[in-house]
Specification:
The chain is an alpha+beta fold and 142 residues long. It has 2 domains: 3-80, Ribosomal protein S16 (S16 Ribosomal Protein, Chain: A); 96-142. It is built from 3 helices and 5 strands. It has a 5-stranded mixed β-sheet. The radius of gyration is 33 Å and the shape is rod-shaped.
Amino acid sequence: MAVAIRLARGGAKKRPYYRIVVADTRARRDGKFIEKIGHYNPMLAKDDENRVSFDAERVKHWLGEGAKPSDRIARFLEAAGILEAKTRNNPNKGKPGQRALDLIEEKKAKAEAAAEAAKEAEEAAKAAAAAPAEEAKEEAAE
């Protein structure tokens, strides 16, 4: 039987409260579990000591029995020093979506157009500045 250490949701609508349980992986999220080993209240402040609490000895026991912690539980255990910190890499999560990519392209096109317009304006200013000097030379030559 595959065993997992995971969260089981409780609490009211928009007021979540989770039990940290050891359950068979085939059981439903809020269904039958083997043992309750702690709780997690995400409504409390992150620095509150009652936000996450669990029985460390029971956690170590179940990890020794081969229980696999869920991602969130693994983070809690890493913070408590029970598990080794694991490097995570999800390169797709940091990628911008299609709309953001479209906005980036629009900004780039506008920047290029503005740079081109500034360059043309600069050339026109140079030509305008050079024109009176040439007219003065022509008048002096006559």
